[in-house]
Amino acid sequence: MAKLSKKTVTSADPTEKDYFLWDDSIPAFAVRVWPSGRKVYVIHYRAGGRMRRYTIGQHGSPWTADLAREEAIKVLARVHSGENPSDARVEERKAMTVREFSNRFLDEYVDVHLKPTTQSEYKRAVDLFIVPKFGTWRMADISRADVSELHGDLRHIPYQANRTLGVLSKMFSLADLWGIRTDGLNPCRSVQRYKEEKRERYLTQEEYARLGATLNEAEDMPEAVWAIRLLILTGCRLREIQTLQWSHVFFDQSELRLPDSKTGAKIVQIGQAAINVIKSIPRLADNPYVITGRKEGGYLTDLQKPWRRIRIAAGLSDVRIHDLRHSFASDALEMGADLTMIGRMLGHSDIKTTARYAHLKRENVRLSTNLVSEKISAALLGR
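The chain above was modelled as a monomer; its predicted structure follows.
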């Protein structure tokens, strides 16, 4: 334990779990370091027969270690005089905006409790739909009608509308738990979700050709092009390619050894075409990722925007990134791979997941059966 200063707080590295650095001059004063790297000054005190925590503010502008310590002294003085500072915070919490709450939601819940793939989905819903709609609104003021309106605005994309509703519902549940909404009501309840029709979209050879020509012309966004080519040639999930590191690539074994995918650690066998793409990508000395992003040392976080541009240029406006994975499986089935093999190629943990492609296999069987029967029929007629 040491006196909190700019140096000690700045040098406090985040870990998998949050932790406290306590100040030796004021034992009740600490900085809380979250896994996301966010650092918040807090004090602990006893009131009403129980321990309570009071948040001063996030490290940075305006809160430095010295200013936070001064505030801690003032707040603790109020505690010693018999006041409970948390009571005043109740009204402050009620005034919290959706934007402010979203920051806490992402830091204290999403980054701590969810898998990276799910984190990405939650952050996308918050950044693209929830904050733009409700950012300046108070969390305490949002009604069921307001939520229903947002859900309705997204009805043209039922899947995203329902996922956004789910994220928003979790936010309101935590708002109740954290004392920011005190009515005990979740305005997302009873908002009817849209029916999601399962769609099967697979690229034809002609569509592959159009997509390939478009990728060849997209010289201004090489990282996105490399990522899309790897998605096409490996059947991997988007997140698996985005977070692929050079240490995961084993050229001699033609393998990608992924330590953390949607179904856990897995090995992806890759073909020569995928190997050639990876070998063509410049390797940056200060970045562990294969597909690098704008942030130093980071990966390409948003592939949706360049994909929208590419698919429109290729005349494939209805094709999602995930459809590239479906197309990979479809082509494998057409070439004779069985469902068990397809499951291994795609990294499915349950054969039931792969069974969705069974109808494609049946179509191939029907086509082959028809060709055989036609041949025999022609022979019977002496043709």
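The chain has a mean pLDDT of 85.
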